[in-house]
Amino acid sequence: MARTVADHLVDQLVAAGVERVYGIVGDSLNPVVDAVRRTEGIDWVHVRHEEAAAFAAAGEAGVTGRLTACAGSCGPGNLHLINGLYDANRSGLPVLAIASHIPSAEVGTTFFQETHPDRLFTEASVYSELISSPLQVPRVTRTAIQHAVATPGVAVLTLPGDVADAEIHDDGAPILIPGACPARLLPNEADVAALAEAINAATKVTLFVGAGARGAHDAVLQLADVAAAPVGHSLRGKEVIQYDNPFDVGMSGLLGYGACQEAMESADLLVLVGTDFPYTSFLPAGVRTAQIDHDARHLGRRTRLDLPVHGDVAETMRLLIPLVQRKKHRKFLDSMVKKHDDLMGKVVGAYTRNVEKTVPIHPEYAAVVLDEAAADDAVFTVDTGMNNVWAARYLTPNGRRRVVGSFLHGSMANALPHAIGAAFADPDRQVVAFAGDGGLSMLLGELITLRHYDLPVKVVVFNNASLGMVKLEMLVEGLPAHATDSPPVDFRAVALALGIPAVRVENPRDLRKALTDGLARRGPALIDVVTDPNALSIPPSITAGQIRGFATAMTKQILGGGMGEVMSMARSNLRNVPRP
């Protein structure tokens, strides 16, 4: 029976478990859209910007682990996908993108809207191919799906409209090759033995854990107990290892907090567990370092490496723990855990006490109240910037919650579209878009998507009319903040105009009720929280150069007539100073 290439591709997506395609319709994409319309088990989700389509697909894949799909029409349409696809690919999420193309006979003639998606998307994908003939189907389309699922990552199919509409004849070949169960990567026993010997010989061991330890929570903590090792983590490792963890010493990096940095620098053996942590300045070059990772490309590319172990974290723990001798002396562990508790109470926690009368609202306090009001199995999607800091420090993982963000690509505007994908994946689960006003403004039209599909996404906007992270970056470089502030926007009014229930909170006394009521609503809701634009994030390790830069920037600001703003910033951040 004759069918079109588009029909066959959509059938393959359904067979692979894809339930929806995110995108915006367009002429070259029409055969695919119509095939979706006629096929049971798959729907078209009409977003307002193709960038949001790619982010939404990534958000769904991030919480389900299953293949998702997005699409863009030729030229400008599919080019809009690229930012979200970069994000998905760097996060290792299985996404198939359909980049429709100009008529195949016109390729290479600088035709209207001509681009070359098969070339453009190469860096944002694990597989990118042009389908120029129906004879390539189903092998190329099937190969794209295999790459996306198995790597995992983004696979891009560039599909001219005329080819999508061309007929193919089934030859009885299976639509998909049955997927194999994921393999386990066993480490070399000699490498495991060498690591065990190093742990046994060390007096102060620290574990630094990343997202690669997912599924190995209990085993990693068993090693920490036996080795008397404090456990720090990266941002992506927070939801993996922080909960139910008596050895927790917090997080390192620009968003970090607690005693993690000191625990790494004071150790005589640092074990990197499932992390490709990129910030080399926070990794101690003078400490003997081991690294466990399932991807050999990660080994040693960030910092010194004395003991590499190539294998899955869970499998490595299974072989390693029986070889490690239980340490009797636990002074290092106890001192780091106590230091962490002190720092959390005196510095990080200081922002959240006695601030019920402080206006503008401290964002740290707002993050704590949100954390307390949210469901135990909530999905938080977090915008890049200062919201990353507040989420990292104040959202509490428990093994059931999820935190999704553009943590490797670092794109603005991801929270709302990520939340759209997460909500489609599980409409009965609470999804909270932890949005900044800058990020929300960039893809503001996706509020229409929430209303269109009545998605139960709760958008909590930390509205400080400022690009806070950029402001901080300028200050530590000795530059006065410039072009970081925006005109105040009443996002409550915007949401109400679109038919979304919304509230604006300016008084901290109203915050808890507004969040509790908003999260309990059916369907979409928006809570516009007006926060202090001068609240800054202080990393756990501050260099002399950063201090000099900050002082220089403040001096320039005063000389430029900004004394009032400098004093306001000081008042907003005095809680950073530890008190005995």
UniProtKB/TrEMBL annotation:
Domain of life, source organism: Bacteria
Domain Thiamine pyrophosphate enzyme central intervals: 192-319
GO molecular-function terms, A-Z: catalytic activity; magnesium ion binding; thiamine pyrophosphate binding
InterPro entries associated with the record: DHS-like_NAD/FAD-binding_dom (IPR029035), POXB-like (IPR047211), THDP-binding (IPR029061), Thiamin_PyroP_enz_cen_dom (IPR012000), Thiamin_PyroP_enz_TPP-bd_dom (IPR012001), TPP-bd_CS (IPR000399), TPP_enzyme_TPP-bd (IPR011766), TPP_POXB-like (IPR047212)
Alphabetized UniProt keyword annotations: Pyruvate, Thiamine pyrophosphate
Gene3D superfamilies: 3.40.50.970, TPP-binding domain
Tagged with keyword Cell membrane: no
PROSITE patterns found in the cross-reference section: TPP_ENZYMES (PS00187)
Listed transmembrane segments: none
Thiamine pyrophosphate enzyme N-terminal TPP-binding domain ranges (all copies): 3-114
Domain Thiamine pyrophosphate enzyme TPP-binding positions: 383-529
Segment forming the signal sequence: none
CDD domains per record: TPP_POX, TPP_PYR_POX
Family recorded in the similarity comment: Belongs to the TPP enzyme family.
Protein name per UniProt: Pyruvate dehydrogenase
Species annotation: Georgenia yuyongxinii
